[in-house]
Amino acid sequence: MAKFAKRIANMQASADVIRQLFESMTDPETISFGGGAPAREALPVELVHDIASEVLTRDKRGIQALQYGNPTGIPDLRRAVTDRLLAPKGLTAGMDNVLIVSGGIESMNLVSQLYLEPGDVVLVEAPTFVQAVQIFQLFEARCIACETDDNGLVIEDVEAKIKKYSPKMVYVIPTFQNPSGRTTSLERRKALAELGSRYDVIILEDDPYSEMRYSGTKLPPIKSFDKTGNTIFVNSFSKIFSPGSRLGYIFASEEIIRKVYDVKTATNSHASVLAQIICAEFFNRGLYDAHLKRICDIHRERRDVMMDCIAKMLPDSIKAVYPDGGLFTWVELPQSVNTTALLGDALAQKVAYVPGREFFVEDRDNHDNCMRISFGGVEPEKICIGMERLARVIKARL
Amino acid sequence: MAKFAKRIANMQASADVIRQLFESMTDPETISFGGGAPAREALPVELVHDIASEVLTRDKRGIQALQYGNPTGIPDLRRAVTDRLLAPKGLTAGMDNVLIVSGGIESMNLVSQLYLEPGDVVLVEAPTFVQAVQIFQLFEARCIACETDDNGLVIEDVEAKIKKYSPKMVYVIPTFQNPSGRTTSLERRKALAELGSRYDVIILEDDPYSEMRYSGTKLPPIKSFDKTGNTIFVNSFSKIFSPGSRLGYIFASEEIIRKVYDVKTATNSHASVLAQIICAEFFNRGLYDAHLKRICDIHRERRDVMMDCIAKMLPDSIKAVYPDGGLFTWVELPQSVNTTALLGDALAQKVAYVPGREFFVEDRDNHDNCMRISFGGVEPEKICIGMERLARVIKARL
């Protein structure tokens, strides 16, 4: 049979992990700390029902919902993005700076289509979001890891690697990072924007979790310090509205958005208009503030229960990140424990997580003692039961 | 600023045309025979309203609609594809042969990601669908045109060019082709499937229009003659359900679908679940047959009115394809008339079409006398008014 392109071979390894992630979400008896889904209780089903019932009539909007749209996205949703999502973060955007995409993953795919040539280097955090790496590899880029600590990317290491590798892009999730739950400090945000400008590197800032803050103080995005347009800010509606709608957006200079328009046209024309209209109404009717409070309350409780369970059930020698928001904590076991091997024990006990090595692009063997634990999709009582199972499995290996 | 990838420069030219196409749809005074949209009167707004109201409740399906889904698409919609769309075409597909995509354009993008390396050759019809060419060029493929006549691709020319260029793929819209409105004959369908198998070339069969047949006899798809899996059958729900939902599907061997799964995951995870559930219900409630009859009745009338207008209003020296279905006819003016120059006159008279040269990848100057006329999106009375305007403009140039 006709040969697949080279890029397909590049992505094989991590695709299997993604497949497992999706599949672990479907066994009802397994308590899965593996997926990255938000709480099902936080999904605005009733609000979407009411909006859909009202807009889907044979007037202008009902027809608009089912007819072809514009690759940029519908104006109502772009306006919601500029006024209700970007402005509160201190980001001033015009309508022509925003393009609606079909979910956060697609924003990274489109930016990759726009910039990456085979062999280009992308600097990523260690650890980083596995699906982003998969996308960069699909475009035959080489991902190089930069050091991180509790305050995010270590700037000296990023600068040294910019000089050494002349990367096209630095990919960073500065707030409640996936997988580590860590947040990049204010100083480092400034420094990253400046590095992008000074060395003419794209800083791809991915911000799906920052609205879900349960404690601590809000920080401005890297993009707010960008004076040259080198930072491209991408975001998803998956956590604050609904993952299944598949909506997100890209905020960048008009020049870049015009090119993204062409790539979006050749990828899938535009995001589902029905989903866009419902999402736009959700924001423009002013339903978001109360909904966000509800989301944060639900997930804060889960974060608190999870961190209590870790403190009570796991030995003190085990370190866990305390996340001020988002969906994840990152647990480091003693070096003697291999979390990939441990996963078999865990699945047998009907509890799941993602082994830490999956989130590293280099030096994976040195991170075999880590795991990502996702608390967002699990009810509080089940978090306790799941963590009892996991603690038992871990202790048996200590 | 950081440089765009080479692939972006490749697509520039045609992207401007697409942009114009989208924009010509928005001036309310212009009667546009330019776009490829189906009749707004044919959109199932009420059915979608009723389905959305019923499924969006806090039970399993309401939650499913808003939560993450599987890259393959929801089983209910894949089942609707195998049983209600493929089986009636004589195509036997298992659930694992079908993957749901975000619109027909995306199916071509994903297949291109799967197969095309820079420099690969794709054979296309002359004329062909301009957005497909844009996608192949985005993947740095070289498009080579093959001869067509009233029966579709000229097989001898396709075989000669397979031998000469060793293409990776042959792209073909065999039924009510965009832009020509022509249909590939039964013998040539068989021959194309056999060429794919004999020379190990992918035959990418794009079938968005075949359900919209207003006259003549149904023909089996190329895929029905494929014995080796070399034909990949892609389709869209845009014409038979709704363009704005952005849904389509790929039907291929399990081996290919497994790889498309990986690429879909890295493109945008999965199609909008809300749109998928509504579309699946539409088919599984048995609403499609009556809806399709309605679509065909509406568009048949438009086809008839358009062909009458052409016969009555344009001189006999002007040739037009009589399409047995779909949305397009193809008009050839005397060689002395340049349809790109004529478009300025037409727009001044508030009527639009797409100049023929845009649909050719080679030898464009020899097709400057052609135009694509799309009748699907225009009400019958307006077709007459628009054609009066266009006839006046054309006659002034004869």
UniProtKB/TrEMBL annotation, chains A, B:
Cofactors: pyridoxal 5'-phosphate
Alphabetized GO MF terms: pyridoxal phosphate binding; transaminase activity
GO-annotated biological processes: alpha-amino acid metabolic process
InterPro entries associated with the record: Aminotransferase_I/II_large, Class-I_PLP-dep_aminotransf, PyrdxlP-dep_Trfase, PyrdxlP-dep_Trfase_major, PyrdxlP-dep_Trfase_small
All copies of domain Aminotransferase class I/classII large, residue ranges: 64-389
Superkingdom of origin organism: Bacteria
Keywords tagged on the record: Aminotransferase, Pyridoxal phosphate, Transferase
Complex and partners: Homodimer.
Similarity comment: family membership: Belongs to the class-I pyridoxal-phosphate-dependent aminotransferase family.
UniProt-recorded name of the protein: Aminotransferase
Organism this protein belongs to: Leptolinea tardivitalis
